[in-house]
Structures are given as structure tokens and as C-alpha cells.
Amino acid sequence: MIYPIIGIPLMGKGLFWRYMQYSYTHCLRRAGASIQILPWEAAPEAIAAAVSRCAGFLFPGGPDIRPALYGQSAQPGCGISNPARDDFEITLLRSAIEAQKPLFCIGRGMQILNTAFGGTLLQDIKSQQEYPHSDFLHRAYATHPIELDPDSLIGQLLMTDAVTVNSLHHQAADTIGEGLWIAADSPEGFPEALQIEDYPFCLAVQWHPEHMAYHTPIQQRLFQSFVDQCRKETA
């Protein structure tokens, strides 16, 4: 069996970030992947080496992206960003897309994808939400419904046009970047999944399947499909 190497940007060095990173790596290893944690090194040679070495990339959750990257100044409610991580992930993502690598973008990862394509973000959605969208205590369980485009990749993998998911975000994609389209949304109209037009394989979801996968096996299917696609690229 081939164990494709999946690259994941480092989330942080503290115990909390190590715990959060483990949630992703555990799901990927269950699906048969090897893991390469990538430090925040945006130098061209480091990016090129990562793209050459890894069969695919998972972009995980994390802190708010700095608004300057999508042409805005910080507004009330916007959290503290990590510029080194922002710059690394944007550069890596664009290089991975150029190389047509399989992608799995989760939470902040979906927002990075939208930013990389020229989209913008709502910096704080609390005043607009119908359901609580930042519910860390219930991260392992579904807390609100979403509707999926049945023709989208995510709709085909989950085999439904409606599902309930968890939620750990206080920001959301606003203007959608050119070349992307909305594959799922929440009752309030917040994008819950994005897809790249005419791209081989890209899952981009606003919810966090890495926390749901143990109790909701269908969410593990997303990791399995991603790893299987990376395995095809390695074969």
C-alpha cells in the first residue's frame, strides 16, 4: 500500500496548537497517509521543495487572516493574525494550485483559499448569525444545518444535499474569489464549502470534519477521499 505524503502547515508550537494539529493528522493517518508538518518558510526554494515532496496539502484552521491580504483594514471583532503563517500559506497554496496538487482546506484553510483567489472575508459574523458558528465546546458534534450543491464534489462525497455540521468560526467568506464557486451554504447564507472551477481535486469546507470524524464516520470519508486522490498522484 502506498502511503502518500500530505503536507500540513505548522499550526503553532504550544500545547493547544499541538492538540489541534493532532486532530487532523489522526484522521489522515486513519486514511492511510504519511504526514509532513511544514514550518513557516516562504522562501521560494522551501516552497518548491514542499510541493515536490508532498502528494497533496491540507490547510487547517487557525487564527484570523490579516485583513490587508484581502484589501481591508482591521474592524472590531477581528482577531490577532499571524503574518508569518499567512504569508507562508498563501504562497504555498498558490504554488500547490499551479502544480495541480490535491487540496483539502478546512476552516481558516477555506478562507485562505478564498483570499488567494482575490476574495474577501466578513471579519465578524456574530451579529448576522442565526445559529452559533463559534462553538468550540461542541466541536465533535453537529450543531447547525447546511445545504450542499448535489453536483459539487462535497455533495457527491457526502451523497446528500443537506447535512448538519459543527462550527468553529466567527468569520466567513464574503466576496467569492474569481475562479471559485459556492458548493454549500448555511441558513444565513454564509458559504460553507467552496470549489475551484475545473480543478482536479479540492475540498474546501468551513466546518471541521477532523473533530466530527470519530462520532460521524461520514466525515472521515472526506479525509479518505482526499488521501485516495493523493495516492493516485503518487502511484
Which topology does CATH recognise? Rossmann fold
Low-confidence stretches: none
Strand order of the largest sheet: 2-1-3-4-11-10-9-6-7
What is the percentage of strand-forming residues? 15-25%
Radius of gyration based on Cα positions: 16 Å
CATH homolog superfamily: Class I glutamine amidotransferase (GATase) domain
Percent of residues in helices: 25-40%
What's the number of extended β-strand segments?
Answer: 11
What string gives the helices and strands in order? Answer: EHEHEHEHEEHEEEEEHH
Count of discrete structural domains: 1
Kindly name the structural category: alpha/beta
Q: Tell me the major beta sheet.
A: 9 strands, mixed
End-to-end CA span? 10 Å
CATH class descriptor name: Alpha Beta
**Count of DSSP H/I helices:** 7
Q: What general form does the structure show?
A: globular
What's the arrangement of secondary structure elements?
Layout: E1 5-9, H1 15-30, E2 34-38, H2 44-53, E3 56-59, H3 83-98, E4 103-106, H4 108-116, E5 121-122, E6 144-148, H5 153-158, E7 162-165, E8 172-173, E9 180-185, E10 191-196, E11 202-205, H6 209-212, H7 217-234
Parallel strand pairs: 1-2, 1-3, 3-4, 4-11
Antiparallel strand pairs: 5-8, 6-7, 6-9, 9-10, 10-11
Helix pairs in contact: 2-3, 3-4
Which key features would you list for this structure?
235 residues, alpha/beta, Rossmann fold, 9-stranded mixed β-sheet, 7 helices, globular
Structure description:
By secondary structure, the protein is an alpha/beta fold. The chain has a single domain, classed as Rossmann fold (3-Layer(aba) Sandwich), CATH 3.40.50.880. The protein is built from 7 helices and 11 strands. A 9-stranded mixed β-sheet has the order 2-1-3-4-11-10-9-6-7, with helices on both faces. Strand 9 and strand 10 form a beta hairpin. Helix 2 packs across helix 3 and helix 3 packs across helix 4. The longest helix has 18 residues. The radius of gyration is 16 Å and the shape is globular. The N and C termini lie close together (10 Å).
